[in-house]
Fold this sequence. Notes:
The structure holds three protein chains of three kinds.
Chain A: H1 2-32, H2 40-63, H3 75-87, H4 90-116, H5 124-135, H6 137-144, H7 146-149, E1 155-156, H8 169-193, H9 195-205, H10 207-212, H11 217-243, E2 245-246, H12 252-266, H13 271-290, H14 292-298, H15 303-321, H16 335-346
Antiparallel strand pairs in A: 1-2
Helix pairs in contact in A: 1-8, 1-11, 1-12, 1-13, 2-3, 2-4, 2-5, 2-6, 2-11, 4-11, 8-9, 8-11, 9-11, 12-13, 12-15
Chain B: H1 2-32, H2 39-55, H3 63-88, H4 93-122, E1 137-138, E2 141-142, H5 143-165, H6 167-177, H7 179-184, H8 189-210, H9 221-236, H10 243-265, H11 277-288, H12 293-299
Antiparallel strand pairs in B: 1-2
Helix pairs in contact in B: 1-5, 1-8, 1-9, 1-10, 2-3, 2-4, 2-8, 2-9, 3-4, 3-8, 5-6, 6-8, 9-10, 9-11
Chain C: E1 2-11, E2 14-24, E3 28-33, H1 40-47, E4 52-60, E5 63-64, H2 70-75, E6 78-81, H3 93-103, H4 108-121, H5 123-127, H6 138-150, E7 156-160, H7 168-184, E8 188-192, H8 196-202, E9 205-210, E10 213-218, H9 220-225, H10 227-234
Parallel strand pairs in C: 3-8, 3-9, 6-7, 7-8
Antiparallel strand pairs in C: 1-2, 1-4, 4-5, 9-10
Amino acid sequence: MFDVIIxxxxxxxxxxxxxLMLNTxxxxxxxxxxxxxFGLLFSYAGGAYITGHLTAKIAILLTGAKVEADPITQPVxxxxxxxPILASNPLISITLLIIxxxxxxxxxxxxxxxxxxxxxxxxxxxxxxTLLALGEVMNYIAIAYKPFINGSLGVQVPDVFSWLGSRxxxxxxxxIILLIAFILYxxxxxxxRTPLGRAMKAIRENEIAAVSLGKSLTRYRAIAMIIxxxxxxxxxxxxxxxxxxxxxxxxxxxxxxxxxxMIFLGGIGNNLGVALGxxxxxLINRLIIFNKHLLAGVLPFDIVWFDYISLGLIMxxxxxxxxxxxxxxxxYIPKNIRRKIVVSRSQE
Amino acid sequence: xxxxxxxxxxxITYSSLLSLMALGITLLYRTTKVPNFAHASxxxxxxxxxxxxxxxxxxxxxxxxLGFIVSGIxxxxxxxxxxxxxxxxxxxxxxxxxxxLTYDILMFGIINIYAxxxxxxxxxxxxxxxxxxxxxxxxxxxxxxxxxxxxxxVLLMLLYILLNRTIIGAALRAVMENPSxxxxxxxxxxxxxxxxxxxxxxxxxxxxxxxxxYMMTDxxxxxxxxxxxxxxxxxxxxxxxxxxxxxxFILGLATTVLVxxxxxxxxxxxxxYSLMVPYITLIITLIFIPRGVVSIILKR
Amino acid sequence: MLVIEKLNSGYGKLHVLYDVSLTAxxxxxxxxxxxxxxxxxxLLNSIFGLADIYSGSIELDDERLNxxxxxxxxxxxxxxxxxxxxxxxxxxxxxxxRLVARFxxxxxxxxxxxxxxxxxxxxxxxxxxxxxxGTLSGGERQMLAISxxxxxxxxxxxxxxxxxxxxxxxxxxxxxxxLEMKKTMDMIILLVEQNVHKALKIADKVYVLxxxxxxxxxxxxxxxxxxxxxxxxxxxx
Lengths: 348, 300, 237
């Protein structure tokens, strides 16, 4: 019984960590720079798939192991050699992890820039269309270009979390995911308070005013997109590493719509709100999944569709009744100005 | 040579269907100022309308009429349940876009449940809706080619007459140009917008009803076509309704005929990348002619 | 006659007008003046159903306008000429006028008569009848915008700062035309203006609105004599 609870919590926290990263990224792009990124899937899948492609190859380089099988088309054979080495070598495992995450971040950032390229000067609506359309492309490429991740079959990746022993593998993985999510969250908070962050928010509020003040729309959008997409790429990487395998079937529903739902639920622009919204959602979602068999008896149809319909309805309700979310955004006022306001108020 | 003609015919069919879809998107963008991400669902409801008719023993082409109505109603529900309340509240375009995306998700769930229901009730695969084998042939052309092209022409003419020769059309145009001024002059803007949603949904429904006669379809077909639909609209030019069929044909023919010709020249492997054509076209359009082909034509 | 009694209105939670009472008679120009942000446009919006009315009544010839949607109010014979975006830029001058006339349900003969009256009032528009409205100069645009309001022969004409941003000669000319309209047409004119001098020249009755409240009601000469108000809020005298 206890084991089941521990398992549930670990799984919950891992999902929470991954989604927290994604939603923080989305919040930076939307909440800070006003970019309606409906194509989150593009960078996420990019990070996930590039990890699928490169982890084994880099592992081979790092360990110097002799692997005859091609890790893409014959992952099982390749991993039979690689995994034991990684399991007994924490240093190499961690190095591999860090390298892969950096690659995921860079690739994600690059994809973000590609998405933004033609759209960088576009109005909100054109931008949204472009990003939404591009979201699907990564899956197409992964399926069509077999050397990437073996087409629709997908690949398995070496286990970088096994060096504490197989018993603690999931705890370690979850722990690392949470750690990275936390670091990124802190960075996002920090970003919001810097002049850069505040400039971004100014643009989001009123593009014309901000541009007339000399803020370069293009530049700030690009920066927000790069940072956000880098986070997204890292999240995708971690997803693949956590799952141990990846197939080119990542869905827009899971990795674009749900993140939007979570940040709307929690409150756009407010990082704490986003974290709260993410946690509430993931908790409920995991509870439902865990008790799938119970619900399956009750519902006359597949639980997957129930997911779509109920979440669609919830989002509709949020949009109509509380679009600002649970924790609405509070403008950040720098300390020196805050002091002046307090002083002038006390003089009234 | 025969192959090229076949590809051309197939291309014309695809272009006609794409144009019908893009017409709705451009119409909605002009009236409600919002890109409608739920258009995918409008199309899918059309697909399953004609499929249901076929299963019940009727001629699936009746699905064009029924599909128009069904999808039109689905569009109206989106309008009155989500968009109109948000519009009255002067919600931002972003929120409206989010609302259309939400509705798309909702409808996707519903149509999938329906597909499952068909599967269990009729004991046939409802995720492989392909009615082409049942299509008729006339003067060497497949039924779907004749019907889709002629329907496109007829609907375009009807649309033109509506917009330019009727008072409702004048009201619609006024709403497209300046909604507050239209309202200030006695036009019920809300009703006109609802009309545009019904029409756009209807057009998508017609296209969807014809799709199974052309290609393999399933509930996800709508999502697959979102990129080509929007690309066709943007390519044609979102500022002019008649840009949609223009963009539809340019993109449609590029996707079919151009790629086919290239595969003969460069190599067959390029066919797997035919899915990339809308995206590449979209990017090129946004860089070089962001206001669409229509803007080039109108300049002269 | 337009009768507004103790009107409290605003937008959502933003309360703009407080206990505003006002009357405007036929064949008279009633002006609402005041500094920026005083609520003048909100007053017009409230009459036309574009603002939220918390309490009070708005009656035109004893007919309550409170709960009506804007397009119905328009059909009841109220024309609202906005300050900006008040024409259909892609249509010609004449198309603008005919389109609007059609919507108000006028028959062919009435449209032709009304059109003639407007061309008599604004000969420039007749000259430019086939010109695309978006290419008109600022003053010509305002003339067209006002004509759009006039063509259906309204009972009540609401003008929101018609001379704003116009070159001086257009301002004078427009003011004269508004005076002409008052004399030749049988309607109530409610004029919101920033240009106090010009407004006082033609107004029969003046209301001064400050921070959402009426602080003065009377004739232009009475206002000029009340130096404190005139100077402080209107920069006159």
